[in-house]
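Design job #97: recover the sequence.
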C-alpha cells in the first residue's frame, strides 16, 4: 500500500463528497456554496494546492467565501500540502484543520497497516515454530503463492502480502 499524495487524496474526497464524477471547479464551487456546504473546505484546499485559486475565485458569488479563500491562500503560500504535519505550521479555522487531519490519517494509514502486519507476522512465526507447520502446508491449505508466503514468514517481508492474508495465515496457524 502506497502513501497518498495530497492532490490525489483531495481529488478523491471531492468526487466522493460531491457525488459527481468530475473535478470541474465551476460545478464544485456551485455545490459548495449551495447544496453541499461540507465540500467547501476540501475544494479550497484543492484549489490552493493545485494553483487554481484564481479560477475558483472567478466562480464564487458569495463575498464571505471569496474573503475566506483569499485569507487561506495567503496563509498557505509556499506550503507543502504533502507534509502531514502542515496543520501545526498554519493557524487556520478548525473545519479546515479537520480536513487536513483527514489527510494525515490517510497518510499514516500505511504505517498502521504495516504495524498490524508486523504483529501478525510475529504471532504467525511463533505459532509456526511451536506447531511445526511447514510453509508449503500453509500455502496449500490457504491456496496462497509459496514465494510470497515464504518471503513473508522467513524474511519478514511484510510488503509481499496484504493485511487480510496475514490475518488468514495467523488464524490458520492458531486453528491447526
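Job complete. Output follows.
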Amino acid at each position: 500500500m502506497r502513501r497518498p499524495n495530497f492532490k490525489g487524496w483531495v481529488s478523491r474526497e471531492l468526487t466522493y463528497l460531491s457525488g459527481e464524477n468530475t473535478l470541474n471547479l465551476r460545478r464544485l464551487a456551485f455545490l459548495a456554496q449551495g447544496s453541499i456546504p461540507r465540500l467547501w473546505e476540501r475544494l479550497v484546499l484543492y484549489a490552493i494546492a493545485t494553483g487554481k485559486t484564481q479560477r475558483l475565485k472567478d466562480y464564487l458569488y458569495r463575498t464571505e467565501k471569496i474573503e475566506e479563500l483569499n485569507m487561506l491562500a495567503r496563509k498557505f503560500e509556499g506550503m507543502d500540502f504533502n507534509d502531514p504535519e502542515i496543520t501545526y505550521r498554519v493557524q487556520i479555522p478548525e473545519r479546515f484543520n479537520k480536513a487536513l487531519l483527514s489527510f494525515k490519517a490517510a497518510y499514516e494509514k500505511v504505517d498502521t497497516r504495516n504495524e498490524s502486519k508486523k504483529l501478525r507476522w510475529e504471532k504467525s512465526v511463533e505459532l509456526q515454530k511451536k506447531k511445526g507447520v511447514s510453509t508449503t502446508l500453509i500455502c496449500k491449505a490457504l491456496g496462497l503463492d509459496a514465494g510470497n508466503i515464504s518471503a513473508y514468514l522467513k524474511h519478514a517481508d511484510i510488503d509481499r502480502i496484504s493485511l487480510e492474508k496475514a490475518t488468514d495465515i495467523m488464524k490458520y496457524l492458531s486453528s491447526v
